[in-house]
Amino acid sequence: MMPMEPPRCLPIPEKPGAPSILTREDGATIAYRRRAGTAPGLVFLGGFMSDMNGTKARFLDSYAAAHGCSCLRFDAFGHGASSGDVAAATVGRWRADAVAVVDALTEGPQIVVGSSLGGWIMLLLALDRPRRVAALVGVAAAPDATETLMWQRFSPEIRAKIMAEGFVDLPSAYSDTPYRFTRTLIEEGRRHLVMDRPLPIACPVRLFHGIEDRDVPWQTSLDLMRHLSGGDVAVTLVKRGDHRLSRPCDLGRLAGALDALSAIGRR
Description:
CATH class of the domain at 24-143 and 204-265: Alpha Beta
CATH superfamily of the domain at 24-143 and 204-265: Alpha/Beta hydrolase fold, catalytic domain
Strand order of the largest sheet: 1-2-4-3-5-6-9-10
CATH topology of the domain at 24-143 and 204-265: Rossmann fold
Distance between the termini: 33 Å
CATH architecture of the domain at 24-143 and 204-265: 3-Layer(aba) Sandwich
Radius of gyration: 18 Å
Order of helices and strands: EEEHEHEHEHHEEHEHEH
Helix content: 25-40%
Shape: globular
Largest sheet: 8 strands, mixed
């Protein structure tokens, strides 16, 4: 048997200049970068405490530039160059903002790529705007993260501190600054749980997950596949893959999925 060729990888550009700004009805501002192009376009939803200048976000912009499709990436409320304090953020806020940017800043069908907690937001977006979402790509998708990956993992002492004081600051492997987890984030997140019932999402879905992901168990993607109602759902488990899945070979797999999904979207 001939060995498989390594996945094709695209160059990642340097960080560009100042982002554009979308102002919401309450005065909050969403920083975004938009590349014009054909449909289906790409929309990136980053994870908790990540921004639109991360490796995967910039990779999608590079992919869009090479293929002539549109691309939208933005900073969630309380993240990056967007306004707001992350300590005041909720899943509902991120959900509403994702809908707002798609409505205001994109045209035609979109392939939505969600990383980690952004994978939860992409599912909510698909439920809210099914006609605008042509396909979903989850990278270590973390649906229901505030419940299963935060609250249920917290020790009784941490839970008690959150309930009594309203928040807790915990160290993170991804930052020198502790991450703040609030009681509001946990309790409001329960209004948006999706893994307790079948998900009426019929568009094609591709899920990538690293076997060595220490933040979101790889079994999460298999569980999500079972919940999705559509028949065109595939999970790729990556040996030695971590939570970020940002190595050149990981990005190459992502590019291959985008190639195939874009072809479907143009039919």
